[in-house]
Write the structure tokens for this entry.
Amino acid sequence: MFENKAALLIDDKRETQLTLQYELLCLGFVVTSVSRLDRVEETLQSMYSVDVIFLGLDMPSSNGYDVLKKLKDSGIDAPIIAHTVHVDDLLRIREAGLQGLLAKPLDIECFPDILQEIVAGKQS
């Protein structure tokens, strides 16, 4: 379904990274994970391409909205998906320019369909 598409996971929680990474690998993605925000720019520069970015919104040194601004300022045009427990922040997430929301914990049954819609340009 997503053979050789590149995904970047930005989250400080290792458990979140491992869960998403496993599911993305099963769908055919090539996955890169970053837990330290000071490594995001360097990681992006080392990637050949990025097709989708998963962004945790709650991180100790910064929030996901600050990271989103930096990503947008750097010219990233890949869909950026919030991955958060704060599903009640959907309006703020949309206004910030995120293309979708994946609630924690991840619903593995719905994940492939939701991801397909987001990658196809439909907001979720």
In short: The beta strands are 6-10, 30-34, 52-56, 80-84, 100-103. The chain has five helices and five strands. Residues 14-26 form the longest helix (13 residues). The CA atoms of residues 3 and 28 lie 4 Å apart.
